[in-house]
Amino acid sequence: MSHRMDIDVLQALCAVQDCGGVTRAAEHLALSQSAVSHKIKRLEERLGRSLLARRTGGPLFTEDGQRLLGYARRILALHDEALASLASQPLKGSIRLGMTEDTTSSGLSRILGRFARLHPEVQVRTHVAQSLTLEQQLARGEADLAVMQIFQSRLQPSDTVLYEDSLHWVKSPDLPLLPDRPVPFLAFDAQCFYKHWAEEAGSERGAGLVTVLECASVAGIASGVLSGLGVALLNARHITPQMEVIDHVMGPPPPPIAYVVRIAAKSRSVAAKSLAAEIARESAGQNSLSAA
């Protein structure tokens, strides 16, 4: 019996993990659920191993399935690199990329490294800043594209949404919020659009906010929260079990947010558009990029 593994079944296997199940993987691949299940079942029969755990509430993959996933991703990456290397028109030029601080340690770094190997004649100059700053740089034509965070209500038709998340007020359980006293607030910096929203929305407590810490990093804000310095607005992926969510006492619920890739309206860079498409394709369904 042949043990050859086709590219499409490896793509299906990775999509199941990235999307969190067979049904969502099928939607992502524009296939029926039965087609995806059949591909994986045939691979299991060829290998003589179970790959999907198929237990409600348990892990998606068996130990063999997890091991194969690592190989599958490497095979798919090499497959795509081989195709790109044979492109008739190699990309050239430069890209001014904006990205947020916590994105530098996410899957985006891997994508940028791969893009550099595939397109050695493209120079990517990366600038790290807050989302509001990046949005302004795009509008002024000082950046070609950016990976940033915005309120979902401010999405533009040309934005590519990478991930959606919720925003919450948090504090340390040890921090008391005293009536008629200003609430100590931890902000990323003066360009923190969380802070702008909080100041405009006000607070049901009626005492307002006073900024006691400005810090450009998520790690710094999280540390300040856990130390009891003040309250902060954090998206769900950065909230830890040691933090207390206090949406119910802080007034209007924070609006939902989205991580997006946005290309500058005046950009004519083919390389920038190619990089934006690569980021969107690689991160689809994975929730692996974090931005602030």
General description of the model:
It contains nine helices and ten strands. It is 39% helix and 19% strand. The chain folds into three domains: 7-85, Arc Repressor Mutant, subunit A; 93-162 and 258-283, Periplasmic binding protein-like II (D-Maltodextrin-Binding Protein, domain 2, 3-Layer(aba) Sandwich); 167-255, Periplasmic binding protein-like II (D-Maltodextrin-Binding Protein, domain 2), CATH 3.40.190.10. The mean pLDDT is 85. It is an alpha/beta fold. It starts with 6 loop residues before the first helix and ends in a 9-residue tail after the last helix. The strands form three sheets. The protein has a five-stranded mixed β-sheet. Strands 8-5-9 form a three-stranded antiparallel β-sheet, with helices on one face. It is globular and about 70 Å long. Helix 5 (107-118) links the parallel strand 1 (93-99) and strand 2 (122-128).
Q: State the CATH topology of the largest domain.
A: D-Maltodextrin-Binding Protein, domain 2
Contiguous helical run count:
9
**What distance lies between the first and last C-alpha atoms, to the nearest angstrom?**
50 Å
Helix-strand pattern: HHHHEHEHEEEEHEHEEEH
Strand order of the largest sheet: 2-1-3-10-4
- State the major sheet: 5 strands, mixed
Number of strands: 10
Query: What's the gyration radius in Å?
Result: 22 Å
> pLDDT under 50 segments (min length 5)?
none
Q: How many domain modules? A: 3
Helix residue percentage: 25-40%
CATH architecture of the largest domain: 3-Layer(aba) Sandwich
CATH superfamily of the largest domain: Periplasmic binding protein-like II
Mean pLDDT: 85
- Estimated structural class: alpha/beta
Determine the strand fraction and express it as a percent band: 15-25%
Based on Cα principal axes, name the global outline.
globular
CATH C-level label of the largest domain: Alpha Beta
